[in-house]
Amino acid sequence: MTLHENEIPVDETLVRSLLEAQRPEWAGLSLAPAGEGTENTMYRLGDDLLVRLPRTADKGESLRKEQEWLPRLAPLLSRPVPEPVHAGTPTAAFPTIWSVHRWIDGDQAGPDTVTDWSAFGADLAAVVGELHSVDLMGATRADDLSWYRGGSLGPCDEWVGRGFDDCRTTVGSELDVDALEQLWRAALALPEPSAPHVWLHGDLKPTNLLVREGKLHAVIDFGALSVGFPDAEHSTVWDLPAQARQAYWDALSLDDVTWARARAWAIAVGISGISYYWDTYPAFVAECRARLQAILADAATR
């Protein structure tokens, strides 16, 4: 499945060649596909390891961030996060950084894995609160730690506006795009955020939340790790059922302005996701549509 221009072809043969060249002691271990995201392709290596390979050369910096910062953040967090054990270097066949992490057992958060959504929402809020309270350790909102979701909404208006136009053409009447745009524009009119910058995971959607025995167990994929305002961190709660969303809100005592900005970020990511991946990634488009429908239903009750 190709999602981007200039995507680097990846298969088992390539992965084994990288291992043979850089970690020959692992080259004979079993290797099996372990999922694909919008930015990385994953392979499970043996029982205890996971290989992460960026889809395009420019995505390698996301793995470099994980390799640099996760060993420093992990001891300060109470739940497991990925542990990098090899920083792969570019080769002629694969011209960017790649990575090997410890495997973390668990299932993606969903209706078949979570037993109590209210408890799950409260646990996720605890994870977010914990991460946001970690000292920045000298990190600033610069270079690869400066990502759009940790900034202000205004600079995103141009490309989000194009996304609304695209969605009117593709999704049409199946989604109330006008109502979503009204929520977006209302958030643009709010005062600029003033909270201190914090560490941001950046993409706490269900596929990055691992569950064991019905409860939140681990948080994975820190490729969007950044420093910035906390508002966008809350946007993925619209991917969860309403009871989880309410428990999250209550646990963090979020005010209405923060909630409105978080909702706007959720709209921005959902609208742009439909626009960008409409022809290439129908499963992700479905996730975005479900998120936007949840926003509309939630807005009608608040």
Automatic annotation (TrEMBL):
Alphabetic keyword roster: Transferase
Q: Which InterPro entries match?
A: AGP_Transferase, Aminoglycoside_PTrfase, Kinase-like_dom_sf
Claim: Disulfide bond is one of the keywords in the record: no
Supply the EC number(s): 2.7.-.-
Domain Aminoglycoside phosphotransferase: from-to ranges? 31-265
Q: Which residues, by range, are in coiled-coil regions?
A: none
Q: Which GO terms describe its molecular function?
A: transferase activity
CDD domains given in the database record:
APH_ChoK_like_1 (cd05155)
Q: What is this protein called in UniProt?
A: Aminoglycoside phosphotransferase family protein
